[in-house]
User: Fold von Willebrand factor type A domain protein from Corynebacterium matruchotii ATCC 14266.
Amino acid sequence: MENGRVEFQPEDLRGAKRRGKESNLIVFVVDASGSMAARDRLAAVTGAVHSLLGDAYQRRDRVAVISVRGRQPEILLPPTGSIDVARRRLEDVKTGGRTPLPEGLKLAADLIEREHRREPGRRAILVILSDGKATGANGLTNLRMVAHDIAQRGLAGSVVIDCENQSRIRLGLALELAKNLGAPCISMTELNAESVTGVINAI
Assistant:
């Protein structure tokens, strides 16, 4: 652990398995702003979605993906257990623009609450891939408020995957977001489908 972050490498997570056969709703909130970095994050999430749904018959998991970019976040993939649906919805996703992260988390929280009313026995896991930056007026203040609200609702376990550029001066905003959510913050220098799936299976 370093500065409050859990330092994971993909090889550290190999062989990790979730215990039991409970079904899960896994909601990815992925920062799709920027260019190459956003593409890397989306590629990792897409691969993780396919991997998780590949053995969904064992637990009947469902997966959703929310893209955070531009003026408003977008539900790229509504909750589904179908690999075919996931593949179609996640092809040719747009990237770039601003980062409406508070709105993205609010959208995720509302989705989780709706699904909880439909299936109260299904465990929800919120996975946020971001550097914690939030554009717009009062972006960071709004982000803190939304994160506290999600933590208070208690409908989902959360994990933040810190995607801040390692070569620049670190702002630690992802770690702050994780603390406000009451969630672990995992720093990964090599983000890929295997590492993201490993994180999910280790929760």
Remarks:
- Confidence is low (pLDDT under 50) at residues 10-20.
- Residues 6-202 form a domain with the Rossmann fold fold (CATH 3.40.50.410).
- The longest helix spans residues 36-54.
- The CA atoms of residues 45 and 193 lie 6 Å apart.
